[in-house]
């Protein structure tokens, strides 16, 4: 059994450092993959989530033509996060420790910087967050009643070979939060995302696909840019996203990635009467969140890391578009 390094365990309390939690804006638009617009379903093959080997078991198939498969051992959202029984997705399994990433080439995956370095930066390194977690693809519900946690082909899981670059540093508008990693497996047939290099403008429609709270893949639309923040490392959008969505691609109607979801307001609000948690909800403007904190100490929308000049300078040698 693999033992987590100290730095990886620190990630469990990262809220105190990077505040990578999020919230729901207006109606909860998160849907399963099979319920999402057909135009976006093919994008999902290029999206992965963190997988801790500690929570997997391997079975070798008897047929010489079959590969090893994995079984996943995860609790439900109700069990792990004390999510109230009638809250959306409360009975679905969670990977517990989670980030999202997306392919831009057959073995290159973009994610949030805080998913690879707790604080600081790394170049051509095997960081603890790289070595202690694998990346799982196709963790999604594609039809009603699907068995999700058993007999997963091992080829859907890749180890992280190294962090090509990662930054999680800076303050305020100039906080950088991005990472590019190289996987040990190559996925030439999966979707490789293209980067939007145009200007981010207020009111632009945006979509997100990722793994909120380590849940099976979810799509959320009906969102738009609240504040383009010219000159900043990030823009704000009212995307329905929570912790685990960190690293998710935020894209336009053509599937071009405008940025990487990195942080926001609190995920949950306590229901003291029922002794459980509910999803934190805000108005579409980002105001009047149920936890009462959004108006006081945070911006109105989710923070989305832009492809800023600093980011693009590091990324450009790896882009093939």
Helix tally equals: 7
User: Spans with pLDDT under 50 lasting ≥5 residues?
Assistant: 1-21
Oligomer: single chain
Provide the residue-averaged pLDDT. 87
CATH class of the largest domain: Mainly Beta
The SS-based structural class is: mainly beta
Tell me the CATH topology of the largest domain.
Answer: Thrombin, subunit H
Terminal residue distance: 41 Å
Order of helices and strands: HHEEHEEEHEEEHEEEEEEEEEEEEHEH
- Shape category: globular
CATH superfamily of the largest domain: Trypsin-like serine proteases
Tally of DSSP β-strands: 21
Query: Rg, please?
Result: 18 Å
How would you describe this structure to a colleague?
The protein is mainly beta and 321 residues long. The protein folds into two domains: 6-24 and 43-192, Thrombin, subunit H; 205-310, Trypsin-like serine proteases (Thrombin, subunit H), CATH 2.40.10. Helix content is 10%, strand content 33%. It contains seven helices and 21 strands. It has helices spanning 6-10, 15-18, 38-41, 77-81, 128-131, 294-297, 309-315, and strands at 24-25, 31-32, 47-51, 56-59, 69-72, 100-105, 108-111, 120-125, 134-137, 152-153, 157-169, 176-183, 205-210, 218-227, 234-237, 249-251, 257-263, 268-271, 276-279, 281-282, 302-306. It has a six-stranded antiparallel beta barrel. Strands 3-6-7-12-11-9 form a six-stranded antiparallel barrel. A hairpin with a 6-residue loop joins strand 14 (218-227) and strand 15 (234-237). Residues 1-21 have low confidence and may be disordered.
């Amino acid at each position: 059994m693999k033992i987590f390094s100290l730095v990886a365990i620190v990630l469990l309390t990262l809220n105190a450092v990077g505040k990578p939690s999020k919230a729901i804006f207006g109606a909860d638009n998160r849907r399963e993959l099979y319920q999402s617009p057909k135009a976006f379903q093919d994008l999902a093959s290029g999206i992965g989530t963190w997988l801790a080997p500690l929570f997997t078991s391997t079975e070798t198939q008897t047929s010489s033509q079959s590969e090893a498969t994995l079984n996943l051992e995860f609790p439900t959202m109700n069990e792990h996060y004390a999510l109230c029984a009638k809250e959306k997705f409360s009975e679905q399994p969670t990977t517990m420790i989670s980030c999202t990433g997306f392919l831009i080439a057959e073995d290159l995956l973009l994610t949030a910087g805080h998913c690879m370095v707790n604080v600081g930066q790394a170049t051509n390194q095997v960081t603890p967050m790289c070595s202690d977690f694998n990346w799982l693809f196709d963790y999604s519900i594609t039809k009603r009643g699907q068995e999700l946690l058993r007999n997963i082909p091992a080829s859907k899981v890749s180890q992280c070979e190294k962090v090509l670059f990662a930054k999680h540093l800076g303050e305020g508008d100039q906080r950088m939060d991005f990472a590019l990693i190289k996987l040990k497996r190559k996925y030439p047939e999966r979707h490789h995302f293209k980067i939007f290099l145009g200007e981010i403008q207020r009111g632009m429609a945006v979509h997100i696909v990722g793994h909120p709270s380590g849940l099976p893949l979810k799509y959320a639309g009906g969102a738009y840019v609240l504040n383009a923040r010219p000159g900043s490392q990030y823009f704000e959008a009212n995307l329905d996203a929570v912790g685990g969505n960190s690293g998710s691609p935020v894209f336009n109607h053509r599937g071009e990635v405008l940025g990487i979801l990195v942080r926001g307001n609190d995920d949950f609000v306590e229901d003291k009467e029922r002794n459980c948690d509910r999803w934190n909800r805000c108005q579409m403007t980002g105001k009047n969140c149920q936890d009462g904190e959004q108006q006081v100490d945070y911006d109105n929308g989710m923070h989305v890391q832009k492809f800023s000049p600093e980011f693009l300078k590091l990324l450009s040698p790896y882009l093939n578009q």
